[in-house]
Structure formats: C-alpha cells, structure tokens
Design goal:
The chain is mainly α and 341 residues long. It contains 17 helices and no strands. It starts with a helix and ends with a helix.
Length: 341
C-alpha cells in the first residue's frame, strides 16, 4: 500500500471517528476532565484583561447591535409579550412563599420612598390641575351640604315647616339670593384654589415623606404587593399594545447601545476588570468562585448532551475536514522528509 492511499484512509478514519457514536459517548468524559482542569487553572493562564475587553468591545459595537442584539432582542421581546397576553396564570404563581416573605421584609424596611422623585412628581402642572379639580369638587359638595340656602337644615327646611306660605314671595326672594350667591361663589373658589392647590400638594408631599415608614404605610405597601400577586399576567398587559411595546423596546435598546459605547462607561469597565485581575490573577478559578461563595457543581452529562450537536456540526464542516487533511498531510510530509534524509 502506497503512502498516498494510507494517508487517505487515515484521514477518512479520523473524520469518521470524531463524529461517531463512540466520540459522542467520549465527549462527556472529555468535558468532565476539561472542566476539572479549567477549575484548577489559574485565572491568569485562562484569559487576560486585554482579551476580555477586546471581546466586550466587539460585542458592543453599533454594527453588532444592529445585526445581532436588536433583531434577537426584538424577537424575544415580542414572543414574551405574546405569551404574557395569553397566559391566565397569576403573578403570585411565580412567587413562592419564601420569596413573598423576603419581599414583605423588604417592604417593611425604612427609607424606601424616594423623596426627590415624589417631590418632582407632585410639582408637575398635571398634578396641580388634578388637585384643583379634586378640591373644587370637595368644596362644591361641602357647600351644597352646609349652605343654608340649600341644606335641609337651613332655609329649605324652615320653609317646608311654614307650609304653603313658605313658597310664596319669600321663597322666590331666597331662590334669587341663592342663585346670586352660587354665581359669585364659584369664581371665588377657583381663585382660591389657584394658589391653595400648590400648598395642598406641598403638604401632601410633607405628610407622605413624614409618614412613609409608619405602620399604616408599610401595610399599604404590602397590600399593593398582595394585590399584584392576585392579578393575571394577561390583565396587567392588557393596556400594552404592539406600538407601545415596540417603543419601549426601542428605547431600552437605544439606551443600552449608548451606555455600552460611552467612553466613561468603557473606562470604568476596563478599570473594574483590571482590579478584578489584580485581586485574583494568581488564584485558580475554583478559588475565585469560592471567594464569592460559589461551589461549582456542573452536570457534565447534561452539558455534553446539550453541546454535542453543536460540536458535531462544527466537526462535520468543510473547514474542519480541510484542516484535518492539512494536519495529517504535515505528518506525512515530515515522515517523507525524514526517510529521504
């Protein structure tokens, strides 16, 4: 058998062997051994700050966002929204008792209210206009109940007691006075509320800030959370149409892209990575994980099952086949050179 034939047989065997059922079975053992070796390797031997920064820079370019991040994120967002609209499960179905207890503890902590944000909301013109309308309705209803020209305990009640005599000229005079009183009262109330509504909002902010950590307000926060647990997801998403969801997603992607490319953000990221390596470069990956309280237990079997189809696809590619051909060719070329020498 000549060398050329032997070389072709060796290549065919190798290419078939690396994608065989035996190779698939061996992949789990390779993964388990490789992961173990990786955990025992020092961080500095596995990667470098420069390599990590280069990868992150490449993943956050405008072109990458345009071609990869935005399309994939948009598709995932649309699918999640569709599932949410059709899901009759309640929010509480996804919040177990342990998590609810933790959330209750969180909601009971002091200082949860952001006073500057609250003040900013209350100082808006829309809030002042709403407060004016609410106070006007309250004053109007109060006036109708206590105004002696209207209330049952006032003149109307007295006139009823007078019998038919109460509805004569005196009654008409009182109606005229009442009409004039109402005509003058409304603009005065509105004038008063132009300034008082702002004072009312300021006072509202004062009281909310002062009482935000009181037992009743803590109960309020917990009551809102309990209400939320009982709501169906599709009901909460009922007011979110496709246009609104698309705008929200677009805004989120634009912000993410902008922040990722800010010079300051990149400098901070590089500084954080450098500081991390300064602290842990001489530690093994297992030691690094232990430093943060993590104990790696990786199911090599499950990982092998999930990754073998990907690996097999790569190994069957023309690129790998051509690489194997070149690699084996190098071996035979060295053998031929050695024999000639």
């Amino acid at each position: 058998m000549n060398v050329a034939t032997l070389r072709q047989r060796q290549l065919a065997f190798f290419l078939e062997r690396i994608v065989s059922d035996a190779a698939k079975s061996e992949w789990e053992a390779h993964l388990r051994a490789g992961l173990s070796a990786l955990l025992e390797a020092k961080l500095s031997s596995v990667t470098t700050p420069a390599a990590i920064n280069r990868a992150l820079d490449a993943a956050t370019t405008t072109e990458h966002f345009k071609r990869m991040v935005r399309p994939i994120s948009k598709a995932v967002h649309a699918e999640l929204l569709h599932q949410g609209r059709t899901r009759d499960a309640r929010v509480g179905d996804y919040v177990p008792a342990g998590a609810r207890a933790t959330i209750d503890e969180l909601l009971g902590r002091p200082g949860l209210m952001n006073e500057p944000l609250l003040r900013r909301i209350l100082e808006q013109e829309a809030m002042e206009e709403t407060m004016r309308d609410v106070l006007f309705d309250a004053l109007k209803e109060f006036n109708e109940r206590v105004n002696p020209f209207v209330a049952d305990w006032g003149l109307p009640g007295i006139m009823k007691k007078l019998g038919p005599f109460g509805f004569g000229p005196l009654g008409k005079s009182i109606e005229g006075v009442r009409a004039e009183f109402d005509r003058r009262l409304e603009p005065e109330m509105r004038k008063f509320l132009q300034t008082f509504s702002r004072k009312a909002l300021t006072r509202t902010g004062d009281l909310l800030t002062k009482n935000s950590d009181s037992p009743k307000f803590i109960t309020l926060r917990k009551a809102v959370a309990s209400w939320l647990y009982e709501q169906e997801i599709r009901q909460l998403l009922g007011g979110v149409d496709d246009t609104g969801a698309g705008l929200a997603h677009e805004a989120a992607m634009t912000i993410s892209e902008h922040v990722a490319q800010l010079a300051g953000a990149r400098a901070e990221r590089r500084a954080a990575i450098a500081a991390f390596f300064d602290a842990h470069a001489d530690k093994t990956l297992r030691e690094v994980l232990a430093h943060f309280g993590a104990e790696p237990e990786i199911d090599a079997g499950a990982l092998a099952e999930a990754t073998w189809p990907l690996l097999e696809t790569v190994l069957r590619s023309d690129h790998v086949r051509q690489w194997a051909d070149r690699l084996l060719g190098e071996f035979w070329d060295t053998q031929a050179a050695a024999g000639a020498g």
